[in-house]
Design goal:
heterodimer; A: 113 residues; mainly beta; B: 114 residues; seven-stranded mixed beta sheet
Chain lengths: 113, 114
């Protein structure tokens, strides 16, 4: 079942602005992962943050994790039109069976030039 | 780089046909997964496999079966295709032994059942 919830469902910003997407989950995790999906394509892994980490950076991406609130956020700084895509969080739960991930519904990001 | 290859990007089939979707990965991953993705419903897990000849039902297995005869190949089978199986199908693989690994996805197959 889908347990992750992302917020907002859709986000429209201008090029150069920052984009923040949030993800909440329900049960204890090993790690949380963010993925990106361009229209009509597969998902591409962006970043993984472990349950004992609070913040992680990769280029223009910054991910935070608050296990006490069971939430994470993805920040994309200085956004570009090419960042237009859907972004999904996925959680790897402690009692996970078979390497499954639980995906959220996604945030659709539109970056206008 | 891990490569997950799905046999078709677009496929059109007729109601009642038996449909095979193929997925191959080149990284010796133990885990493989089949999802379907529909607007407003996100990714839903159909079946997954953690070893050759092993399979487990996901959240929506009805109307589907799978086959994993070789480690690198995971096939999704629609036994008798119906229009409500029109969807985007995504295959993924994952290294099992270290849980801090991502899933790697193919480009998807957009399947239309007429």
């Amino acid at each position: 079942s889908q347990q992750g919830e992302e917020d907002p469902q859709a986000l429209s910003i201008q090029e150069g602005e920052n984009a923040t997407m949030n993800c909440s989950y329900k049960t204890s995790i090993n790690n949380l992962q963010w993925y990106r999906q361009n229209s009509g394509r597969g998902l591409v892994h962006l970043i993984l943050i472990r349950s004992n980490e609070r913040e992680k950076h990769s280029g223009r991406l910054r991910v935070t994790l608050d296990t006490s609130k069971k939430s994470s956020s993805l920040l994309i700084t200085a956004s570009r039109a090419a960042d237009t895509a859907s972004y999904f969080c996925a959680t790897d739960h402690i009692y996970n069976q078979g390497g499954k991930l639980i995906f959220g519904q996604g945030t659709e990001l539109s970056v206008k030039p | 780089d891990v490569k997950v290859t799905q046999s078709s990007r677009y496929l059109v089939k007729r109601t009642g046909e038996k449909v095979f979707l193929e997925c191959v990965q080149d990284m010796d991953h133990e885990n493989m997964f089949w999802y379907r993705q529909d607007p407003g419903l996100g990714l839903r897990l159909i079946y997954f496999s953690y070893d050759v000849k092993m399979k487990e039902k996901g959240d929506i297995p009805e109307g589907y079966s799978v086959s994993r005869e070789k480690k690198e190949r995971f096939s999704l089978i629609l036994e008798s295709a119906s229009t409500n199986q029109t969807s985007m199908y995504l295959c993924a693989s994952r290294y099992l032994k270290n849980s801090n690994q991502p899933q790697h996805f193919g480009d998807g197959t957009r399947l239309s059942i007429l």
